[in-house]
Write a structure and sequence with these properties.
The protein has one domain. The chain contains 3 helices and 13 strands. It has helices at residues 11-14, 145-154, 165-174; strands at 5-9, 30-32, 41-45, 48-52, 62-67, 72-77, 81-83, 88-95, 102-110, 114-119, 122-130, 133-142, 158-159. The protein has a 5-stranded mixed beta sheet with strand order 2-1-3-4-7. It has a 3-stranded antiparallel beta sheet with strand order 8-11-12, with no helix packed on it.
Length: 176
């Protein structure tokens, strides 16, 4: 697989990047090999592209803020984002984390999950930037839940009904 970079979209940009079921991909990690593939994080905020600044030894990366009366705290990240003037087409891909996972029986036992596993719809887009501004998005592949089910069944795997108690429990245990 190798290294990749990650692109995260704010609510405004996510409206342009939806799954086939119309879920916006807000703050979903879109992986890409279209950039340097060095594990860098990019953010699209109000359609402007930003690159996360590299960590500098000795620089505080967060602040601790109190939370509640029990003495708990939040660690609030203070990451520097640098405005980018990149002109490029970035191919980004992910699974829709808002779509209900399709649970299926793998046919082989696993010590952690038994014989069950899950898959979500695969999503791929081209994000077109000019001088760092997101101009357009083009869907490349937007898989539906029905296509996921059909693909698993073609491979001879048994897909559980969404309401099946085992599927419901599996999703609850795996927060999928």
């Amino acid at each position: 697989m190798g290294m990749f970079d990650s692109v995260y979209l704010d609510a405004e940009a996510a409206k342009l990047v939806r799954c086939v079921h119309e879920h916006p991909q807000e703050m979903a990690e879109l992986q890409t090999k279209s950039l340097d593939s060095t594990g860098t994080h990019y953010y699209v905020v109000k359609v402007q592209l930003y690159r996360q600044a590299p960590w500098i030894p000795g620089r505080a990366i967060g602040v601790i803020e109190p939370y509640g009366p029990e003495g708990s705290f939040y660690l609030v990240d203070r990451t520097l984002l640098l405005k980018s003037d990149l002109t490029a087409t970035i191919r980004g891909y992910t699974h829709c984390h808002q779509c209900l996972a399709v649970v299926y029986d793998t046919g082989r036992e696993d010590m952690w999950t038994g014989s069950l596993d899950s898959r979500r719809p695969w999503l791929e887009w081209e994000l077109i930037f000019t001088y760092g501004v997101l101009q357009e998005t083009r869907p490349i592949k937007l898989e539906s839940r029905d296509e996921v089910k059909a693909g698993l069944e073609r491979r001879g795997l048994r897909v559980l009904d969404d309401q099946d108690p085992l599927a419901t429990r599996y999703r609850a245990q795996h927060r999928s």
